[in-house]
TrEMBL record:
Name of the protein in its database record: Leucine-rich repeat-containing N-terminal plant-type domain-containing protein
SUPFAM superfamilies: L domain-like, RNI-like
The Leucine-rich repeat-containing N-terminal plant-type domain, residue ranges: 34-83
Chain segments annotated as transmembrane: 949-973
Keywords, comma-separated and alphabetical: Cell membrane, Glycoprotein, Leucine-rich repeat, Membrane, Receptor, Repeat, Signal, Transmembrane, Transmembrane helix
Species of the source: Quercus rubra (Northern red oak)
Chief subcellular location: membrane
Source taxonomy: Eukaryota, Viridiplantae, Streptophyta, Embryophyta, Tracheophyta
């Protein structure tokens, strides 16, 4: 009787199978579990090892499995469910059990023939293949192997599970589904209600394979599956479909229904797909889709209006993502009137205006007796949990209602133009607060100290001020990410001296924060992984206690632009990025950890040699040892490291010997800079293997070689600097049909080249022929997120370091060689050229009138040659020209007048005895003496050069030049002689003028 009563209870409470199985087992005199099934379970579980906590399970509690013991009733084991009548095992849940090892094809799991539910999610099965025997569970209704690290082809035998209701193989990145397997799955699983295949590789699957999906389907999840082609239209009309998620399939196209779309759809996700979305049609359909509450359209292809005019009508939507769509116009404040809104993401658009100051209105409500009373109706979205409005053009202050939403957990307003103070938060719910890159000022609000659940706080790049007291952080025991960089008026001294705060900190960014010591609380930061203390006033030796911080966790450390003198041994074994540039470090080169990816100690006082042990760093991609005092030879094995390296910068040291000759096949190098050493010998031809090479700077060395013609085959080469070496011989004609297709900067000056200028070479410099006028708004620089290339060039007679190379910058410098013959007319086709220097050669003939076509030219130096004839009148049209030197030639005739030529001084033409007219004192024919332009338009600075002549650099004149318009920071000199900036054109290599850096809005990684 008792047993029948229990069966009745189980029948009524089918949602508690574990309760029923364990209760029946406990109350029955005979164990319900069959011994062979108990053994099979134990054998299956014991075939795996139990590993450390997988990071993906950190948010889940591990189901205890201590109850799995031989001789006990398996129906009472955790995660095991039995049929209450037969005792057969019908469900096994081993999810998130830290199992590690492959699933063997003959595992005892397959002997459990009565299984209906199997959950092996969140384990590590070592990329093992899914056996076809999974198709043998005839009664299976629920199968879940998500996050289980299985791989290979999806077994077509799964389609034999005709009773399957739910199938989840999501987040197995190395599993593939082919079209035949998917078609059989779709055709045979007629009872399927849930299909979850996130990030399973379907790149070879035709989307038409989904055409015959079960009409019972309620949930279809296909995000990031590499689907391409047209999505079947009929899926949008499935009668029971409630969730459709195809996010992050950028090659997937299709069309939304334009009418009669009346399904029970509740959630639609098409972010980053190729679906063209018509706004008017969408709003029309939303009236029919009355159940739709979640809409995710991030980074979509909207057609029609660029402003989401339909937004005020989304009253039923509770979750909306329209980020990364370049929508513009006024901020759609009416969205915030939706009282049920819980999730709103409008980040990375171009919305302007201010956030509304929502208020609480009063409205009259009639009662049953006919009287009326007033009642509050709040316009504030009081259920809001997520609000992301970052990366727009919002201005004004943060409205007070944003501090008064008790449900708000995530608030991101960074990268806008918000002003005013940060207000006091009235509730303690916030988990994420991101306000960086605005114009906020005033102190940090004390209410932050009460946000006990806060995990992320970002207020970098604002104008915050006042003292940051350590007491603000005492209660923030869950804070893992703190960004407070670049608030110049914020004082962090008491905060950095505090202890026993921020025990869980993982990322700490305090760049440009006026701190003088490494924060003391880092002593207890056991999990610190990302630490940026750059651009401060930290001085002296790095304290010994700091070398113990994050030994097993720190992977990013930036101490650059401080005054550190010594660092010692580097103990961080998982370090991947270490930036120590621009300090005062002395002693030998520190040996970076084995896993290092980026390593820079440039601009220090490091001495000694480069150890060959650096070649053991097989993860190293970026190595910058420039501007130190390193000596001895470059380890030959560094050439072999080019299989890994992307950027190698050894410039401005005392290295000697030869350049490594063993650059490997498959070389990855994009930038190789050895300028300013004492390297000699020949040019290494193995560099021809470096097909990705963009910057090659071997200037200021003692290399003795002929011109390396094989460089012209490198398809990506943009910068070639060989100046101040012992190169010799002729350049001749190119050896390939299309040489140097991307070359934009070439400097062969101060060598011993002779022969004619390479006419055919200039005909094929295609990158210098580009019309740059259409790209004036695009300021792009050479390099990537980890490094930006720099180079020293002679501009307007001055040696200047470009700390960043603007991608459109072009110049040719063949000066101080022994070239002869005429200047090729083909140079006039290089329309994007900014600078041209052929000075100090033996060139003859006329100045080509075709130079007048170089409308972007800013400096032209043809001095100290044997040119003759008149100055072409066409040069007057070079309105960007700010520097001209035609001195020491045999030119004659009247100097052209007008436009930019009215700004040049006598020094541009001296030692050309046949020239006359302004600005020369010699008049032409019967002309009267020339008058200079008004002094208010011209200012001059005289610079004397070592070879006995001098030029004048013109500051103001007709036109300002493209490079000034782009704000590249080229230096303009006023009165006086700023010798600390001026490197005379033939002077030492260490006196240089640096471009002014533009302040970045975020950290460069």
């Amino acid at each position: 009787m008792e047993r029948l009563l229990l069966l009745l209870i189980c029948f009524l409470f089918l949602s508690q199978p574990n309760y029923c199985s364990s209760s029946l087992s406990f109350n029955s005199s005979t164990p319900l579990c069959h011994s062979d099934q108990s053994s099979a379970l134990l054998h299956f579980r014991n075939s795996f090892s139990v590993g450390d906590s997988l990071y993906r399970c950190d948010y889940y509690s591990y189901p205890p499995k201590n109850s799995w013991k031989m001789g006990t009733d398996c129906c009472g084991w955790d995660g095991v469910t039995c049929d209450t009548m037969t005792g057969h095992v019908i469900a096994v849940d081993l999810s998130c059990s830290r199992l590690q090892g492959p699933i063997h094809p003959n595992t005892t799991l397959f002997s459990l023939r009565h299984l209906q539910r199997l959950n092996l999610a969140w384990n590590d099965f070592n990329d093992s293949a899914i056996s076809s025997k999974f198709g043998g569970f005839a009664d299976m209704t629920h199968l879940n192997l998500s996050y289980s690290i299985v791989a290979g082809n999806f077994p077509s035998e799964i389609s034999h599970l005709s009773k399957l209701v739910s199938l989840d193989f999501s987040y197995n990145d190395y599993m593939r589904i082919e079209t035949p397997s998917l078609k059989r799955l779709v055709q045979n699983l007629t009872h399927l209600t849930e299909l979850v295949l996130d990030r399973v590789d379907m790149s070879s699957v035709s989307p038409n394979s989904f055409m015959n999906l079960s009409s019972s389907l309620m949930s279809l999840r296909l995000p990031d599956c590499q689907l391409n082609g047209r999505f079947p239209d009929n899926i949008f009309h499935l009668p029971n479909l409630q969730l459709l998620d195809a996010l992050y399939n950028d090659m997937l196209t299709g069309s939304l229904p334009t009418y009669n779309w009346s399904t029970p759809l509740k959630s639609l996700g098409l972010s980053y797909t190729g679906f063209p979305i018509n706004l008017p049609n969408l709003i029309s359909n939303l009236k029919s889709l009355k159940e739709l509450t979640e809409l995710y359209l991030r980074g979509c292809n909207f057609i029609g209006s660029s402003y989401p005019t339909f937004l005020p009508n989304l009253t039923q939507i509770t979750s909306l993502d329209l980020s990364y769509n370049n929508f513009g116009g006024q901020f759609p404040w009416s969205l915030l009137n939706n009282a049920g809104l819980t999730y709103l993401d409008l980040s990375s658009n171009n919305f302007i205006g201010q956030l509304p100051n929502l208020s609480t209105n009063r409205t009259k409500v009639s009662s049953s007796n006919g009287s009326s009373s007033s009642q509050s109706v709040s316009q504030i979205p009081s259920k809001l949990v997520y609000l992301y409005l970052s990366d727009n053009l919002l201005n004004g202050t943060i409205p007070s209602w944003l501090y008064d939403i008790p449900s708000l957990l995530y608030l991101s307003l960074e990268y806008n133009q918000l002003t005013g103070h940060i207000g006091e938060f009235l509730h303690n719910s916030l988990v994420v607060l991101r306000l960086s890159n605005n114009k906020l000022h005033g102190p940090l609000p004390l209410s932050i100290s009460k946000l006990a659940s806060l995990n992320q706080l970002s207020v970098s790049f604002n104008n915050l001020s006042g003292n940051v007291e350590s007491k603000i952080f005492f209660r923030l025991k869950n804070l893992e990410y703190l960004e407070m960089s670049n608030n110049p008026l914020l004082s962090l001294s008491s905060f950095t001296f505090a202890t026993n705060i921020l025990p869980k900190i993982i990322q700490l960014q305090l760049s440009s924060s006026n701190i003088t010591e490494i924060p003391h609380f880092l002593r207890t930061a056991e999990n610190i992984g990302d630490l940026d203390l750059s651009k401060n006033q930290i001085k002296g030796n790095i304290p010994k206690w700091f070398l113990e911080v994050g030994k097993d966790s720190l992977f990013y450390l930036n101490l650059s632009y401080n005054n550190l003198t010594s660092i010692g041994h580097l103990p961080w074994k998982y370090m991947t990025v270490l930036d120590l540039r621009s300090n005062m470090l002395q002693g030998p080169l520190p040996v970076p950890p084995l896993l290092i990816y980026f390593f820079s100690v440039s601009r220090n006082n490091i001495t000694g040699q480069i150890s060959s042990s650096i070649c053991n760093l097989s993860s190293l991609k970026y190595l910058d040892l420039s501007y130190n005092h390193l000596s001895n030879m470059i380890p030959p094995c560094l050439g072999n490291l080019s299989n890994y390296l992307i950027d190698l910068d050894l410039k401005s040291n005392n290295l000697h010997g030869t350049i490594p000759s063993t650059f490997a096949k498959g070389c990855y190098l994009k930038s190789l800079k050895l300028n300013g050493n004492q390297l000699e010998g020949s040019f290494p031809q193995s560099l021809v293997h470096c097909r990705n090479l963009e910057v090659l700077d071997f200037g200021n060395n003692k290399i003795n070689s002929t011109f390396p013609h094989w460089l012209e085959t490198l398809p990506e080469l943009r910068v070639l600097i060989l100046r101040l070496n012992n190169f010799h011989g002729t350049l001749g004609n190119p050896k390939t049909k299309f040489p140097f297709p991307n070359l934009r900067i070439i400097d062969l000056s101060h060598n011993e080249f002779h022969g004619h200028l390479p006419t055919n070479l200039f005909k094929y410099l295609k990158a210098m022929m580009m019309n740059v006028s259409a790209n004036k708004g695009e300021l792009k620089y050479m390099g990537d997120n980890f490094y930006q290339d720099s180079v020293i060039v002679v501009m307007k007679g001055l040696s200047i370091e470009l700390v960043k190379i603007q991608s459109l910058f072009t110049t040719i410098d063949f000066s101080n060689n022994n070239f002869k013959g005429e200047i090729p007319k083909s140079i006039g086709e290089l329309g994007s050229l900014r600078g041209l220097n052929f000075s100090h050669n033996n060139l003859v003939g006329h100045v080509p009138p075709s130079l007048g076509n170089l409308t972007n030219l800013e400096w032209l130096d043809l001095s100290s040659n044997k040119l003759e004839g008149e100055i072409p009148i066409q040069l007057v049209d070079l309105t960007s020209l700010a520097f001209l030197n035609l001195s020491e030639n045999y030119l004659f005739g009247q100097i052209p007048q007008g436009k930019q030529f009215n700004t040049f001084t006598n020094d541009s033409y001296k030692e050309n005895h046949g020239l006359c007219g302004f600005p020369m004192t010699k008049a032409c024919g019967n002309d009267e003496g020339q008058q200079p332009p008004p002094s208010s338009t011209i200012q001059e600075d005289d610079f004397e050069f070592e070879n006995g002549f001098h030029w004048k650099v013109v500051l103001l004149g007709y036109g300002v030049g493209f490079m000034f318009g782009l704000g590249l920071g080229y230096l303009v000199f006023s009165s006086g002689k700023p010798k600390w900036l001026v490197n005379i054109v033939y002077g030492g290599r260490h006196n240089k003028v640096r471009r002014t850096k533009k302040n970045a809005h975020g950290r460069t990684r």
